## 1
Amino acid sequence: MLTRHLISLILFSFLVHWGFQASAKTCQLVVPGESHEITETLSSEQAYSVDIAKTTKTLENTDRIDSPIPVSKKMNSFRKDYLPYMRLNGATTEAIIRFMESDLRMKSLALSKKLLAQSKVEKYDLVIVGAGVHGVIAAQTALKKNSNYKILVIDSSDTAGSNFRYATDVFNINSSNRASGEDRLPLPGEGNINELPNLPIQVSDLSAVKYPTAGDLGGALVTGLYSATLKYPNIDVLFSSQVKDFKYARGEFRSQVKVPGGEVKIKSSRLSIATGVGTPRLPEQVAKDLRKDRSLIKTNKIEKALPRVITFENFIRALSQSSDPKKYIADKNISVVGVGDSANVTIEFMLGYAVDNAYGISNAQTLGPKNIYWIGQDRESCEEFIEDIRSRYAPIGTGFRSSSENVEAIIKPISNRLASVKAKGKKKVIATLEEEPFPIDDIESDVIVLATGYESQVAKLIQGLIPDLDESDLNLPINEFYEKYTSFQMGTTKVSDGQDTRIGRVVKVNRATNQKPMAVINGPAAGKLPQDDELVGIVQNSVSIFNNAPRTEASTKQLLKGVKAGKAKNKVEERVLKYHSPLIRSQFEVSNLSDVRTLPGVNDVYLKAVLSNLLTGVKVADDLVLEGNNLEINFYNGKNKVYLDTNLKGANVQEIIVDPLLATRDFFNMMSEILTLVSRSFNVSVPVVNGQLDVENLRVEYTNRARKNNPAKKVENAKLDLELKL
């Protein structure tokens, strides 16, 4: 839990970095062999430039941070605690959001272990499948309706709003920010069409620009889920988990969930499915080609090169993770398949039209792609392209022409569709195209980006809930499947002017056509919910936030009618550092590290916040004798490795410290970067007082201390995984 101690920690660190005290206006670099307090080690060049007067005013002015939309008292309290810090600058915001992700991932790991260890089936009032826009809105809506509901959110990714969160600043979303408020309905021209009902931090809080970045939306969703788990201990999260099946009997849903380390069983009174637009859809023959030759979708060194065939989601994730993302496309022939928003933002990035933060340390001197083969694009000129494209994509049109008669345009539009792919040697890939509208030669590329749309997985997910399911119907187009096995959930929203409208889809789990909702599909996963007359004059598509977010809010309220909150036993699992065996090692070698974007000026704040959070509430058993009565944790730099050791000989260090840090995904990657950039070792000291770790007095130092060559247990970090799941 991020206590007020940690908020104070963040504030104090920022004050030191940015010169709020006259004596700290210039930061001191590490001197080899000397020990320094962590907040004195970063030079001013490593921090973002900050308007100190403006920052001070931001932190002190609390008159303008009440929520512009109705939220619960707990969420408004959260907003007042966190929003001033999230408004300081980009590095601050990213550090806080990464901390929140780390906390959610550690909670997910703890829940997985608990469920795997117990024999009973855990019971929830509501299970939500999906932690995207509509999953987080559903969770917050349910808690606002009754703060005692026991809720479980399940997602196959390892963060909330993963497609947006992974993208960070690589692209801007195509829905615009406006002011929110009870007198400003979220409709085009009237209010904020990125409004997220019941969430404490809005997209417009994080960005003042008309078209915010994907990262702004992802950050608001991470904050929305984290704030729920912070303020309500009766909400659980399972990341990197897949629901295998659902069954319904005697008034409750039972499901089997694949979690890291095994499978667990859960049950619930109500079910909300919010899986978004679905998973990437691949052309049938291309999928077969990739199954036959998996070398096309693998890379041994993601730090240097991408797989030769990659989906849009994985392409964006690789760019956002790297400190130098243009290296992946520099002087390369790139094929982009598809003509929707995903293809547009891919090409937008490659042409240099993304926001500056998207490019890390890459700059205008870093080469862009040699050629962009746009497969499926039937516009042949800049004028044709911008004729009916959304205005924000208009700059892409410049790629269709060249400023010199002697240089070809970088975009090569090809109206034919992709037919198949095959490897050429170890580094190239050949795209074979369909013969319509006219025969065309194969295209040789370094990378093919598949921006070919999405397909729903809901039919497979809910098949166990439908008593009379004809299994052949699983192959039906999703709209036909829905027509046969679901019915529209009707209701009113704050933007429907009192008129009944479609707010979700009800799964017919009781062979009834007009049953009360028990399992509901929300958001884009439900298909087209807005009726045609609701879309008249609206440029944005039918799955836009402003079209669907109010529906999810209304749907969730209706879903939970008559559900009495169970008596949740919110027992905090005791974590004790204790003697286990003399054979257990206290030194670990962490490998499988990958590139990660650093946070200029506040890298150490993130690391210290994660450690403080991890160690809060940890007890130390009486049989552990600690020299100086302090817990010591030391991190050392290795060649593509990080070494960790402690003064806890024979204790359960891996269970209490190492595994949760591995679960954060970012911690050891960031630690490796910092140990490379700043110093050889990073040393943590925490006093033990009455058998408890005194986290408020946790100290961190950078030094050049040499690592002791004790035997180290090898463990693998969670490396960036871009391999297609076929």
## 2
Amino acid sequence: MAGGIERALADSGFDRAPWIAVALALGIGLWFLLPNPWAWVVVMAGCGLLAMAGAQIQSRGHFSHLGMALLALSLATGFGTGLVWARSAMIGAEAILAPTVQWYLGQVLEREEQPSRDQIRLVLAIRDAEAGIARKIRLNVPLDTASDNMREGAVLRLRARLMPPAPPMVPGAYNFARRAWFEGYAATGSVIGEIEIVEPPADASGLAALQRFLSGHVRGQLDGSAGTIAAAFASGDRGAITVADDDAMRDAGLTHLLSISGLHVSAIVAASYFLALKLLVLWPWLVLRVKLPLVAAAVGAGAGIGYTLLTGAEVPTVRSCAAAVLVLIAIALGREPLSLRMVAVAAAFVLILWPESLIGPSFQMSFAAVVAIVALHNAEPVKRFLAPRDESWSAHVGRRALMLLVTGMVIEIALMPIVLFHFHRAGFYGALANVVAIPLVTFVSMPLIALGLFLDVIGLGAPAWWLAGQSLDLLLWIAHFTAGQPGAVKLMPQMGLGTLALFVIGGLWLALWRGRGRLLGFAPAIAATMLLLATPTPDVLISNDGRHVGIVEQDRLLMLRESRSDYARENLLELAGMDGEPVAVEKWPGARCSRDFCSISLRRHERDWHLLMARSRDQVEERALAAACERADIVIADRWLPRSCRPRWLKADRRFLAESGGLALDLSEGEFASVAEREGEHGWWRGRERRERQ
């Protein structure tokens, strides 16, 4: 067996660098997946033993490829697990125990403008007198209460309602508690009443002030939606983009254009590099004494780093900047700039600094797209297709346009499983929209915005801003037109983690392996596709507090309560893979509702399931309740129910939900999934369990 593996590694020209980055990611992923410290220790110890075995094999010299692969991959996997565990222990923020309303004195750490929501968002450092520690909280402040002095450095006195960061409402929903843990937030909430500025901030300075000034200046030059998009490109400020425009960009597969990442940083770096190169050539003295590609690369790197800092230095932007700098280094050294080794180094750089970014859609989508692009363009058939040849200008442009379309389709295929896993919806026309939108933004909109900012110094930027506005209006028209087409968006219920893992394994094998053996990557991808198509829609979704229940019946979503909360309604619709407005259970013909309870029967798999759901917290006569529970298969309540309430299958009351979190019930199989089974003993979940018990 060892000999066969050794020959396979030798025949494929096994390159350890990309696979080491994969192993590092695997170790980080195992920490999130496995439930407790004992399991994490076992992984690290097992990786250490495998690394020792690899070193022993390597020292004997019989299977050098196998020994080095085992040593490197095991060390990377174990290091990844320990790395994210250490980071969680160092920066994880314990949440407050319960919702609270009181007065706070705090210093502003960050300010985010959100005019599209008629608010600003402040991050404050406050002193928790009871716990005797400092806490970091995030508050929403209405625009009519906010002022310009509420910025970084100001000390504010205010009354606020704070909530612990919310865990997933149901299995597969957004896990804000986990994100807040790694960002250091102990609570989020909103301001009540007026805010007193105890100590004004220092004079506006720094990158945050420059970012706000730049965003406001751009929106002052361009009105409407075009101005909000231009502000996002220039400063990274997306707070003014309307919900309608944001949704259209998402459904058209163009959301990546709004997030300052690879496309924008690459455009800035490339423009700076080539502009510096062309201008420096005009200086003969410098040409004779200095290698101009080195100087131009330094200029491009400086521009990329400056743009990254200006736009907030978010993780996706830092990741893109690191990759762009690596490309510049490769160009300056005369090496191949677009290689999977470069992608691996950039991925390892980000994972070492922010290991928790691995499980976020931003990291996964960015690197999936880059790996797909590099692997596609390094394939021999593609190299032959793009090789220079004697041909007409129209044929040259046609080949490039066709390759751009093929690249867009490959990217969409690579991203679709990730998008469906995180957002439960995917746009099907994104490849076509991106064929026009990417060149439009890269070669028209962004250069015009940069030109407008430059000409504003001498007061002559109006023509450039008008042209930029026309190009951005065209971009928004493409987004709305694409998103409005029939079948533009596919909704799916929650994809299983195993299905996503099979997609990732297949994609990585196709991209990173060499030779005919890479075709084996189609096997897990095909298996994952079959599992995805067979993914069942949950029959019943129960929120973690028992207040919100979604029932899938006859292609409609029934809700126990007609909640005014967009958050609850959208979560239930997404996880059910449905669109449109839900229907109240009490209005459904087959339901029977009183002031305190609703009951409904569902026919699944040649069996009737009887549901009993509490609507109030008023006291009910125990004998009548016990009799009703005895007739029901499932009882759901947002309060504690007495032991005498014994349904035939499941009692999801407050006591049960405190342990399990939200539930997704599959009545056809007679089983359910819970939030708790995915969270284990990680810090953000242990804190919730303590709060519920109290």
## 3
Amino acid sequence: MINSMINRINYHLVLSRRASIFATLVILGGCLSSPPNGTKLIEDANAKESTIGSTQTSAVIQTKVDKTQADVTKIDHLSPRHSFELKLVNKMLKRFHYKKFKLDDAFAAKILDQYLDRLDPRKMYFTQADINQFNKYKNLVDDYINAGETEVAVNIFKIYQQRVKERAKFAESLIGKKLDLNTDETYNLDREEAAWAKDSKALDALWTKRIKNDYINQILAEKTPQETAKKLSKRYQNMAKRSLQIKPNDLFQTIVNAYASAIEPHTSYLSPRSSKQFDIQMSLSLSGIGAVLRTDEDYTKIVSVVPGGPADLSGKISAGDRIIGVGQKTKDSIKDIVGWRLSDVVNLIRGKKGTTVVLSILPHETGLSGKPETVSIVRDKIKLEHQAASKRIIEVDRPGSNGTEKVKVGVIKLPSFYIDFKARNRGDTDYAGTTRDVKKLLLELKKEGINDLIIDLRGNGGGSLSEVVSLTGLFIKNGPVVQINDSSGRTDILRDNNPEVVWDGPMAVMIDKGSASASEIFAGAIQDYKRGIIIGETSFGKGTVQTILPLGSYTRKSFDKPLGQLKVTTAQFFRVNGDSTQHKGVVPDISWNLPKIDADLGERAYKNALPWRHLKAVPHNDYRHFFSPTAIKQAAEKSLQRRMHTPKYVTTLNRLKLLVKAGNEKTLSLNLKKRKEKRAKFNKQLLALENELQTDDGLPAYKTIKELQDAQEKKNDDIFTKKKDIDVFLNETAHILTDLQYSNQLSAAK
């Protein structure tokens, strides 16, 4: 979480020389199969889908809305299938959701607010006059949903498209004029709680400030005025274009999810395409070319290639190449995909194992003006190793009977709790699964002679509930792992019934603000059993369970296209000690106490999040060699002293303070001279701190801020590199663990 926050702040403050990007894995395939009852218990944090409300008695509404359409007719209506799905979703939410709610006029108003927030979260397109018009129907949204009507929602979206088009046109016109960048105006970055602009004139004033800020950002990124004008003009054109590329299924997903998120933030509708992406995330199994793509301006850029994957083995694809065309089987079938949405490009590239995809590539060496090359690649099954569990060993010094001795600390990095349900149910012997993979790594680490173990759950947003229960069982003899309280009020206790303990030695679990859901169950169980020490930052605070409900399994009616899936919050989980992790999260035994960004990144930041609760604790047996509170307190004090006298840690902390301070700024000056001075000062400070870290690692210093930016971008993109740096927090965790183990040995000797 620390690194992701740093990268995010870095991106806004330093790496503004490129436009915002959307990265995704291309070749993802595979499914999430159902248990016998047709449902799947899963968990994931930060699941915030697009969504909205719906419609009824819309003939009069249609007449009023059409007067403002001005030739925006990309989506005129949704299909009868969507209407049927909306009614089905409505019934299922009322039946299965953990939170009992009443779909009445008051709730309908919340749904409309959620929809508008999803369309225009920063209040940059709609005016107060638009909102007043929409609000005439807010008490009718419940009626629209019950009737399965979406016409008003579609019409609001069409107005949104028109407003985006108007703003793009205004922005382009302003770019052609001389901008006054010598005033002492400021631009407010945080508009979530801002009022809607009164009218188009007020929006013009707001957008004038935005455009000035965009222009200044480009100048600060060392672009010439000519380059800046050209780039921003293209950016605003693409802004309007992208709003017209939204397809009916995408809009329907936004509509339904306005309803779902008004109930609770982790409930959402997944369109058929989104369902595939979700299945891929859970199974880590994919069929395609083996590459990571992102949108770069109008182009689809290859960020990384999977080692040993089809793209890598072709010898003709490399990071930095741009895909400009995609075909199937033959060169003649290639379609030009410049300007396409990334998800649509992915759909063309993905396919069945053994089939051929043909790509038209602009090699990175020749750039955009180079000659395109055609590459044929046979799709194959790939495992996303970078998302699966991985291991390493850290060696640290520890006092011993004969002086200082070397201690091997094993580290297992676990990015998610994954499982390939379909492969497991087929009887595949090599299916991807967290517990299987971690057990294998543990046995390897034991053979390599480790003394202590760290499970690194930083940034792990959750995953399979069954996997977290079985994974916990690798470290305890048997017993309860988590309590599940469902919508009927019944509480079930999920237990580990396998007496086998794969690792019985000292262990620590690292968590941060990005550790959520299944990660919190695991960390909480380890803490409740006193099985190990929890180190890092307070976790995310997601204590709810989601069930995947395939809509097609709940109806006999058939359509020419598949129905989507509903991810419904059906229960809340509680720790062995009776505490919920909801809102509060898991509090570490030893905290880094790092500087905080103003925006709350946890569950508390979500609207409509379920509250914290407590249940009765479940009897269990503590780990026999647990670390005492006194030993933990002493280790924490020793750690703080060591960190404050470790140059690399102090530098890392100062770097974080610099970034957090900058990231907490809500307003920016629109005076170019002042911004240049401030940016120069920031870059100078950041470059100095980064070079201190380079020196600590025995690496050459960066000569310029641009060299630093390029290196950071390459490092962020290179997700398949297994040899990652040992960060100061991981290294310090190893030291804390060895300190505690030494204390235990001394206590045992006495």
